[in-house]
């Protein structure tokens, strides 16, 4: 008999929140310190990644965006600037402007669909651009006046430089943070070693590097656009995160190489205004490969969804009958040198469950049955729904003894499991299983194995159900019908 339990009230633990605050403050401090070190004499920092990093961190981790988290970011900005000799009043002003921009972006990102936050739809990059413009505008309005106090520049010059810098940094850095899949998934997809396939996959990135070298050799204004075709090739080949990283690296290189004269350009009449125009153009140019990568990601996701709908049962998620048979035949062909087993499973007295609890109860039973069995199978095993309450499993590499052992574990697992019904109550169900095997090197097609497993399943039903039987492969004119 099951009894309900109440959870006791738990005393809130402040340690995780304090740890989060330290993480936020530390990251903001390091990013701000880097920006301060790159600040040119007599003006605001041309490279200021702290705001984009803070915004990306808050969007990726909403649990960080607490009053304590924002306060920690504020402290990180203050400490970084004061430790490098900043004036307290000016530091407070600039920090308020930085927080204003990041908070504006965070609130706007909460209004867009989740798929747009991770750049998974064709319109995602447009939403990203609009939010970055709003972030840059909010921060520049809040802090642009500090340019007169700091460097004797007029308000318009301060707000213009701040807006461009904020927009450039956001467009370059934010996509990397928003599309980052996590270190675990990166390790899973990291190549194990050198191979021709790896070289072929890396070819677009290598062409991108070569195009950068060509741009340095030729120089001129057109050199800025030379890497774009290779970058578009990368966006059609790699995932959105990889494209974002390559786009960021290229943009950062261009932003550094132009002032350093690594790419020879003609003499410009107004160097400062022309430099701002080039920086803004580079950032806007980065939108093209990001848009292509987002469209490609949406296309891949759509194909995967269509493939799953075509190959999987819509109710249980198991392979459909046609997909199961097709993959099983391919599995038999590929594993001819080792044993293979086939299990046919039929839930006992399933009609009684439908009659007692309705079709909703029967559907619940089927779904729980699939979840239960899937946990007992290996990744290489095939599991499909053949129709109604009948399922099948292909076990590559197993002989009769091992396959029978797996079938027995499946039978016992269902026998010991109470299935909750949507209308209330529990059901204890059982399953009958027929087993057929093919020895290593033996040629037996899938139809013969299905006939043998069906006969074994019929024998298990005739013998009283809730048992496992092993079938022999002798052809029969007709096959029995299960009830």
From TrEMBL:
One annotated GO biological process: cell adhesion involved in single-species biofilm formation
SUPFAM superfamilies in UniProt = Nucleotide cyclase
InterPro entries per record: Diguanylate_Cyclase, GGDEF_dom, MASE1, Nucleotide_cyclase, Rev_trsase/Diguanyl_cyclase
Reactions performed catalytically: 2 GTP = 3',3'-c-di-GMP + 2 diphosphate
Task: Identify one Pfam family in the record.
Answer: GGDEF
Q: Name one GO cellular component term.
A: plasma membrane
Q: Which cell locations does it reside in?
A: Cell membrane
Name the domain of life.
Bacteria
What are the transmembrane regions? 18-36, 64-80, 87-108, 128-151, 163-183, 203-224, 236-258, 278-298
Q: Which UniProt keywords apply?
A: Cell membrane, Membrane, Transmembrane, Transmembrane helix
Q: What membrane topology was assigned to this protein in its record?
A: Multi-pass membrane protein
- Describe the location of the GGDEF domain by residue ranges: 338-473
Its EC number(s): 2.7.7.65
Q: What is its main location?
A: membrane
Q: Which GO terms describe its molecular function?
A: diguanylate cyclase activity
Q: Which PROSITE patterns match?
A: GGDEF
Q: What is this protein called?
A: diguanylate cyclase
Annotated organism of origin: Aminobacter aminovorans (Chelatobacter heintzii)
